[in-house]
Records
---
Amino acid sequence: MDKFIVNIIHRPEMVPEYAEKVTGHGKEENIGRKSLLTESLDIFKFQQETAHKNGLKTTIQMTYASLFNEEAISIAKEHHEKYGDEIALSLLGLPCEEFREKYKTKDFCIWMFSMEDKKSIVDDVFGKFHDIFGFYPESTGSYYMDAELVNYIKEKYPMVKCAVATCWEEGPKAYHTCNNSWYTLMDGGPWNPWIPSKQNIHAPAANEAEDSGIVAIPHLSRDLLACYDGNGSNFGTHPQNVLRGMIYDTKTWEFPYLYNLIDQYRDLEKYNNGYAYNMMFVGPGWLNKMGRWEAPYELLKKSYEDGMAYYGQLKKEGKLTDMTMAEFADYFRQKKTYTEPECALWRDILYGSDKQLFWYCDPYMRACINMNQGGAIVDLRPYAAKLKWEVGIGTPHVQDASYPFLIQEKYRAGYFTHYAGEGTVRSAKLTYNGEEVDLCLCRTHAKFSEEVIENGKKKRILTLEPVDIEFYDLTVKLQTRVIFTEGSSDIEMERTVLSMSNPDAVVDLNEYIVACYGTTEYPEDMTSLTLTCKGKGEEKKIDYAYKCREAEIEGADSVEAVIPPIETKVSMRTSDEKATGYIREGYAFSPMFTLGYKMTLKDKEVVSTWLKLEKAN
Amino acid sequence: MAQAGKGKLNFRCPSCFMRDLDIDMFYDKDKKEYYCMRCQYVGTEEDVLEKNEMVRFRYKDMYKRFTKFDFD
């Protein structure tokens, strides 16, 4: 059953991104330059030849511009016949003289157009594709495809079954890296293929009614630690991205990191029922003859050849299956159920830190557990809300396509803040005789396991290595398990006291979440939020007004926050019936809210706390 | 003094790269140096290449080939 699948995608982009801007420096803009068109086609031919030389089939994503080029069309037809390559249609690569003349704009990202233009462009390119090839494509894509766009395509062209729909954690960090001039703001999505919902492309469908009808694949397979922290465009299955990150030996031109990245993706089959996936999609602009940044063309070429040769070698060894996008969509539909999550226990393979993260994605959430912070949740996206978030001109989000977070340790601090206030995180604190230790300071590792529950569903369990919490005159050995139950929107955190140096000691445990909402580094208006502490026959409520208020109930049934701007309700409950639930409002310098439970813990005791995500209408 | 242009490769500013910014530098042929428009870095090609080696300090495992991805 173990299967590692790769999708190799090429696009004949007649005016490659970057090429006109970078290699055309010092010349007047002219996207019809013959030399540019010839070079672009040469790059496409080189890419195709390299894949085929290594026994790999590709998906040729024709661009709008290439539909006006006889040679590109003829190559696609020939390679479809000869190698079984799929002829698909990309919504990237729109720019060309014909497009600019017709749409009177230099915009080129399909998701940023108005809905009216999106429909018109889709009909235009799909129609032209049909005129040329005599059929409609089964696969399409862009860097990002909003749900409304996919819904339209699926309605008009129901044969489309696969699309490149987002680029993992390409958001404010990528924008920043490009000196705030590259507007791909699309954080918060899955890193591996998924079946998107009709409501929001990032959020997987929970059932047939929500199913958008396509299988979405990410643009590239990206490093789940390095991309979360730094510039995503340095750390993906894109050999030239690795050169961009300067992750190569300048003397030998070797870059073991790329192979480590591919191999770690292969290793993810352990957490996903024997299935692993990779996607490589290099635009021609990355292979231009003038070189790219510090890398001369020879190095660009070598890196592409080496990367492809590695996939080819894996295929020869029987460790890889190459598929076209449409073939993959069929395979994925047959293999994956709606509720089966995507899991990734991921280690640092570049910086030597031994850090380990666990990424979890299902129709209700995307969560990141950080073992370097004692198993704290450091990123949380409430997919349960299936937030309708239209993007493009004429909507409230012209460029911002990210799925909002409740927790994001890079944009809203995490455990560490500067002198005042709190950052977003889900963790716990232990106190004893006036000393306090947050589990965020306990560096550890975890193991993954599964437990079958009912109807073929499973629990995914992350068991952390025990940590020692040292107080002045007491040491507590504590173990954490993080449990995700398939089909539920709960995250259970179970704490077990394995031993105490003084078995009669009693410590205080404070299970908490500090959260807010947003898609960028900057704070949002919190005044519409409400916090509620619910007890038996008693309820305490705070309407958020930055007044630093707090309320608590002993033996509370739940503590809750409703966040209307993202239609989300987040709540907590605990197994300790005597625990005191509390809610805490933030203030202007700390625009957060806190939900939590305070309880006591003795030797050998076990206590669980559940965090739940729901749609708030 | 003539206008600056692109060098033989479009080197990025090593100082900005350290703070996750990709900024192409321009080449001043009179002074034979690259310069950054965003920050104050200036340097010869030799200096740029030397600093580019330096920025790799954070990639401690850059030369390592992993065969195992979980921890015992």
---
Amino acid sequence: MEPATGKIVPNETLLYLDGVSVSFDGFKALNNLSLYVTAGEMRAIIGPNGAGKTTMMDVITGKTRPDTGEVLFRGAIDLTQRDEADIARLGIGRKFQKPTVFEGHTVFENLELALKSPRGIFDTLFAKLKGEQAARIAETLQIIGLAADQGRPAGALSHGQKQWLEIGMLLIQEPDLLLVDEPVAGMTDAETERTAELLRHIAQTRSVVVVEHDMEFVRALGVRVTVLHEGSVLSEGSLDKVQNDQKVIEVYLGR
Amino acid sequence: MEDAPRRTPLFGIPIDGGGWIFLAVVIAVTIAVPVLNLATEPGSAFHVPTYLVPLLGKYLCYALLAVAVDLVWGYCGILSLGHGAFFALGGYAMGMYLMREIGPRGVYGNANLPDFMVFLNWKELPWFWYGFDIFPFAMLMVLLVPGVLALVFGWLAFRSRVTGVYLSIITQALTFALMLAFFRNNMGFGGNNGLTDFKDILGFNLQSDETRAALFIASGIALALGYLVCRYIVTSKLGRVVAAIRDAESRTRFLGYRVEHYKLFVFVVSAVLAGIAGALYVPQVGIINPSEFSPANSIEIVVWVALGGRGTLFGAALGAVLVNYGKSYFTGAFPDLWLFILGGLFIFVTLFMPKGVVGSIREGLAGGRGLISRKRDEAPSPGAFAGSPGE
């Protein structure tokens, strides 16, 4: 249970990043990044373009392997040794910046594919949808407000509806940790408000990390904020606290 | 659901309207052709001439091959330009059995060695020919050889995340390499000439009308069963995962599906079906040689599938029959023009009928009924021609 640094990861820490660095052709996308997310916490990550937000998501979900540093899940699971599918099965869900749903599948089928269930080829080859699973899908359709659209191809949905469907897919996957990349980019105000509500609902039962540019949205979430800059943590605390932090003001307004 | 597609199940497998018509036609042809060949007099208006039976049987084998390619291309977005290799390997496995069946009736009268080995002055049977005199063993090899090759090749390719055009190119290289290898005499498969002069199968004379009718029926049954197997796969949850991989591979991965396992599964199933098609083809045409591995053959299969309609299974079968009927006709009437016609056809279909004949008919029907929302699982995303977009 004890990581190489000798520090003891507290039990309630769900996600633990320590000294993570990633560089692409000499460019340091992440520079000695350390971050902890506790179980049940919702955290907002903000930062200017190129601050390393998406790279951080890639490292956590197994898409990118860090050059150095530790990434631990539930205290003991080393995420740097696992691939995307493995990490998803461990209980880490990811929402992309651009809504990515299966456009040729119906809304119902999208949720069916995401539904927490065995993922092996022979499990799916002979899979029959059970009553409780259908009920779970129906419940999720209610939460994301797409019950009336369940038979439509996901490609026919509006931009906002696709975002909600993707959030619904993550919900039904039942992850312990949800990573959400810019969920309200390109949304109307009403849609943004509804999305904030959805995320707060989700955060009642699991940890959520939201990457966002939109300050109003971050304020609406009302959670602890981490500011990234040039691949490391610049400031951390409530939104008011970081907005008054001199270093943050310099990075955002200076230059 | 507002537009639940009308699908009546068969053995628990949901079959769509076009699928039912397809199965009915295959069964009708499988019964009618042998009956009209054997039970009517040559002068009768209903008589099917004997030369037509193996020709139509060949079309059935091609149709099964097309269905196999559609499974990987239409549903999983893997554009294989090397499926002719699996077809040819199935054919060679059958050909080896047929060679051993000749026994002492060959030109050199050697009971233990096929003619070409005697000609090459070989003294004993190479080890990899052992067992091919036993029919069940040869049939097992028809399934295993293409299946294991697809498993190993696919495992290496999919694990390294080779996709799109790069994957197509290495499948093409695979079949080209096999062609060069099989051309060599010392490979032990008859070199340039391949395997031919077959006499009988399971003791039945291959030249007799009855044997030909039986092979025709076997081909029809194999096509119908192959279709049903593929249809079961594509309508199962696994089929929806596979289509999800085609449309958004990394999303599928982040949902926890091990994409390479799914690709490998459909690739191996497809290769085995192609092998079966090849094994049924060889006794009906009477020869198998390395030209079956030629890259152009594999590309032609893709043309059949594109023309008939990707992602429909029966459309692929229809495309195979249409193109091969055209080939039989044009290579007779205008032998020099055939390749130009084939190339022109491919360009025409790509530009004007991206969903093939079946897709165009469906759109016509849907437009007529004012139902445009029925495209769903049958229609691959338009950009998926050379594999999954967005990667």
